[in-house]
Design a protein that fits this description.
The chain contains six helices and eight strands. Helices cover 29% and strands 25% of the residues. The protein has an eight-stranded mixed sheet with strand order 5-4-3-6-7-1-2-8, with helices on one face. It is an alpha+beta fold. It folds into two domains: 4-126 and 173-198, MM3350-like (Structural Genomics Hypothetical 15.5 Kd Protein In mrcA-pckA Intergenic Region, Chain A); 134-167, no CATH class. It is globular and about 55 Å long.
Length: 201
Amino acid sequence: MAALVYQLKITLRDSKPPIWRRVEVSANTSFYLLHCIMQGAMGWMNGHLHQFVKDEEHYGLPSKEDFFEVHDERKFKLSDLLLGEKDWIQYEYDFGDGWEHRVELEKVLSAEKGVKYPRIVKGKNACPPEDCGGIWGYMDLVETLKNRKHPDHASMLEWLGLESSDDFDPTAFDLAARQKELESMYAWGKKMKGREMDEAF
């Protein structure tokens, strides 16, 4: 019997136009490794805390600093919580900026012979830069860079390390680059197994 593959659509909440990625991963993938996959697929830098939330239950990397119970995401597979097509879970990254993602199980597929998983198959629009103030801050940033007369235009370019607003394209999406980063983050996650957070506290 062929192994099961989950086709997931990851959408950054409240993004207009929508920022999303479609990935295919083994149904046996842990939620910790899904976190790593999503970091690469989206374009995040894995520099902040994260968690998954479903039915008011929290899944992440538990620490003594937690204010509520956090289930260890390394001990849960996708198939444990995503039980059928259209089922979904929330993924939160950077509790300060509050990047919330809807992770929906679109299809349950059979693994294709010769295909290497996980993989990203489609996506739309660029990932926001880290630490820009969440989705609302990002939308303000985009508007600021569009308007060369905006009083914060030059400072925002400097903050981003750009010469010109022509170098900033919120619609950019490079499938090959995202796949490469996805593979890198997935391999790193398998090696670390969440230890980077264990050692941080």
